[in-house]
Amino acid sequence: MPDLISVQDFISQTHEDLSSPTTSSFTSHMGKCRNTVCSLEEDLDLDRTVLQKMKKAVKAEHASGQDLMSHLDAHIAALEKFSGNYHNSGDEKLSEAFTTFASFSQELLEAIKSLFLSLYHNIHFSLDSLIKGDFKGDFKKPFEKAWKDYESKLAKIEKEKRELAKQYGMVRTEVAGGEIAEEMEKERRMFQLQMCEYLIKVNEIKTKKGVDLLQNNINHCNSQFNFFQKCLKVTEKHKQFIEELTPELQSMKSKQEEEKKQLCFLRDQLKAALQLEPKEDSMSKPVRYSMHQLQGNKQYGTERFGSLFKKSDGLRKVWQKRKCTVKSGYLTISHSTLNRPPVKLNLLTCQVKPNADDKKCFDLISHNRTYHFLADNEQECNIWVSVISNSKEEALNVAFKQTQVKEGCSMEDLTGAIIEEIKHMPGNNMCCDCSTPDPAWLSINLGILICIECSGIHREMGVHNSRIQSLALDKLATSELLLAKNIGNSRFNDILEANLPSSSSKPTKDSAMTLRKDFIISKYVNRKYVVPRIMRSPIVKLKNLENAVKEKDIFILLQAYAEKMNLSEPVLEFSQEPRETLLHLAVLVGDRTSLHIVDFLVQNSGSLVKQTSKGNTPLHYCSLHNKPECIKLLLRAKANIAITNEAGETALDIARLMNHTTCEDLLLQAESNQFNMRAHVEYEWQPGQEDMFESDDELDEKLCPVKKDRFHRPQSCYNLPGSASQSWKNPAGFSRGASPASQDKCQDIYAIPHASRSAATASPPTFAYPGPPLPLRNAPRAPSFSPPIPPTSSSVYPVDTPAKKVVPPPLTIRHKRTSSEPFPSTPLNHSPSDDSRSFSLPRRCSPEGASPRSLSSQPSELPEGVGSWQQAASEEMKIPSEPNQSSRENHWASSQSPESSDDIPPPLPRRGDMNKSSLHRVRALYDCQADREDELTFKAGEIIIVEGQEDSNWWHGRIEEHPHRKGAFPMSFVYILPE
User: Fold this and answer.
1) Which helix H or strand E contains 947, and what residues bound it?
2) What pLDDT does 903 receive?
C-alpha cells in the first residue's frame, strides 16, 4: 500500500513551509500528497456507483407509490359512486356503509401520500443533488495540473544545475531542497493551494454523503412512524363502526335469503301450473367457456351425399340447388354447369353454425366467405350439420394422430430398431469383457456392450476411457448409437484382445470382481493385449490415418486408438489450412454415412479445441461448411463455443455470416444452455432393411456374384466366425467406404439356410473367411468359364510385427445402397497388359439371364510374415490379403500404394486338360462344409490330391494327410500348387 499523508500532517507541513521555505521538508511529502489524492479519488468513485444504484431504487419506489395512490383514488371514487346508487334507490343504510369505507380509504390515502412525499424530499432529492452536484465533474484536475507544473520546473532546474557543475568539472547526482526552495516557491505554493482545495471539496462530500444523508434517513424514519400511528388511529376509529355493522349485515342477509326462498317456491308453483318440463337453471349454473365446437350426432356418421339449396352471392340472393358431398374431412359443392370444377372446402378450416331463426338453414364459415345452406326440412338440416361436424372431428383426430406419430414415435421407434440390431451384431449377445449373456450396458465412445458388473468397473476408469449408458434404463438418442452400430464386441475384441494369451485368462460371468477389474484395467488402460500393426514411421502412420478417415474405415482408427497413438496430431496433407487434425478432415469429408468417424474422433482423439494456423477449431469448420450433424456431436461432447479464430470470429459468428441457419440455431441453443445433449442425428441407419429389387433388370445391374447350385442341392453356408448374425457382415470385407447397412444388403442375396449348422462347425480360433459362391454341380454343359472369384481392391499396410498366417480375402461385393447413391469406389482396372488375366462371371440363374461381366485383376504383393504355404503359392499367383470380419491380421490397407489392385487367381485347367493319370496337388483357400455325403469337407490350408473332374466346376479328390477323407469339391475353393 503506498504511503499516504493525513490532513493534519498536510496542514502542519504546509505551515512549516510557509514559515521557513529553505529548511522545510515539504518537498519530501509531495509524493505522499499525490498518493493520498489518488486513493481518495478511488473511494469517491466507489461511493458514486453505490449512490447511483440507491437513487435508482428510491426513484422506482416513489414511482410505484404514485401508482398505488392513483389506484386508491380510483377505488375511492368507485365506492362513492356505488354509495350514490344505493342512495338514489332509497337504501340509506347500505349507502352510508359504503360512504364510510370510502372515507376510511381516503384517510389512509392521505397518510400514504405524506409518507411518499417524505421519501421524495428526504431521500430522493438529497441523493439527486449529491450525485448531480458535488460528485459531478473532475475536481482532481487542477491538482494534477499543479503537480505537473512543479515536476516540469523541478526537472528544468536540476538539468541546469548539472550542466553548471559539469562546466566546472564536477558531477551532481541530485539537488537539495533548500537550494531550490526559493526558485520553486511559486509552483510549491500552487501545489499546496490545489491540494487544500481538493481536501476541502472531499470534506464537503464526506459530510453530505455521511452525516447529512443519515439525518435525511432519520427524518424519513420519523415520517414512517407518523404514518403507522396515523393508520392505527384511523383503524381504531372505524373499528367501532365495523362492529356495529356486522350484525346488521347478518340480518340483511337472512332477510334476503327468506325472499329468495319464497321466490323459488313461487317459481316451482308457476312451472307446475304451466306444465313445463323441468330444465336446468341457467342462472344458478356458472357460465363456462367451452373450447369444443358444435358436436354432431354420431349415429349419422361422417359421410353424406345429397342436395342442398345454397344462397347465391349475387344481388338477387336466390336459393340454388347444388349437389353436395361430405367425405374425408372435405365438403364438395358442385356447380350447375358440368364443365366447371366443384368447390372443395377443407372442414378443418371451416365452422358450421345452425341458423337460430330458421331451423331448416345452417351456415358454413370458411376462411374467406360464409356459405348459407337450406335443407328440405328441419330433420334433414340436423343430419347435414351432424355429418359435417363428425367429419371435421374425424379429420382433426387424424391430423393430431399423424402429428404425434411423426413427432413422438418416429425417433423412439428408430432408436429401438437400432438397439435391436446392435444386440444382434456379432459378439453382442455376450459381455465384451466376461462373456456374460445378454449385456444391457453400452460404452458410447467404444461401441461395445457389457454386463452390469463390468459397467461398474468401466465407470471407475472414468469417462475419458469409457462412457457407460444403459440400454434399458436410459433414453438413448441416435447420436449415442453411432459407434455401437459400426463396431460391435467381436470386431472390438479382434483388436483389443488380439494378443490374449488364452481364453482362460479372460474372466467369466462367475469371476471375482478383483479378477474382472485387473483384466479390464489391463485391456482398456494399459492396452496389454493389443498387437501393433501400424508402422511407427510418422509419415506412414499419419498417411494411413488420413486415408482411414477419407475411406471411412473405423477399424484403422480403432487400431490406432488401441496402440495409444496421438489422434490429434496435424495431418500431412491439409485440405484447406495448415495444422488441420484428423477431426478437421473428418468434418470436411463427412456426410450422412460417415458420422461414426466424426463421433469416434470427437470422443477419443482430444481434438475439440485444436486450432488450425488460422485459429479455426473443428466447430468453426462445421459452421463454414454447413455440417449441423457434426455440430450436434461436438456440442454433445461440450466443445467450447467461445473460441475465436485469428479474425476474432466464433463458430456462431461464422454461421451467421454464411447464413447457415441450422448451425446457427444449434449454437444459439448451446450458448443459452438449452442444447439437448441426447440429440438425434441424420444418419444412414436403415435398420432391418433388406435389398429389394424392383425388377429383374435392376437385379441384373447389381454387381454381386452368382450362386450356382449343384443339382437342386441346398445352398452351402460360408463359414462365418463365431455365431454371427446373417444380417451383419464385416465392413472391412467390402469395398472401402461402404457402410454396414450397405454390406448386409448385398450379402442378403445369398440365402443361407444352414446358418446354424455352419456356425456350429466353424472353429473360433481359426479365423476362416467366406469363400466364393458355390458353382452348379452337374448342370447342363456350357462353355467353360473360369471360377467366379470376386475382385478385391487391397494392398496391405506395412506392419512392424510378424503377422500370423493370413488366408485369402473375402468377397468384395459392390452394392448400391440407395437409388441415388453411387457405387462404392472399388475400381476394376482394365489395362492391355491384363487381358490375359481377364475372366467372365457365369450367367445369373434368372429367367432372363444377365450378360457375362468381365473382371480384371492386377497382381499385388504379399505382406511380410505370411505363412510358408502362402509364400509358396505366391510364386505362381498373387493372392490379395484383405481380412474379413473375425480376422485380427493385416487389416490396414497401405496408403503408400498409388492405386489399389484387384487380384484374381489364374484360370484353372479346363476339363480337357485334366488327365486322371497325372495327379494334381491343390491347396484349399477357404473352409468348406459338405452338404451331401459324396462331397468333401475341408479347412483352409489343407492339401488335396485331385483324382478326377466331375464337370467344369467340380473336382474329385482326397486329403493328402487323410486319404480316407475324399469326395467332390468346388474348383473355386482351391488353387493349384506348383509341380
Assistant:
1) strand 943-949
2) 41
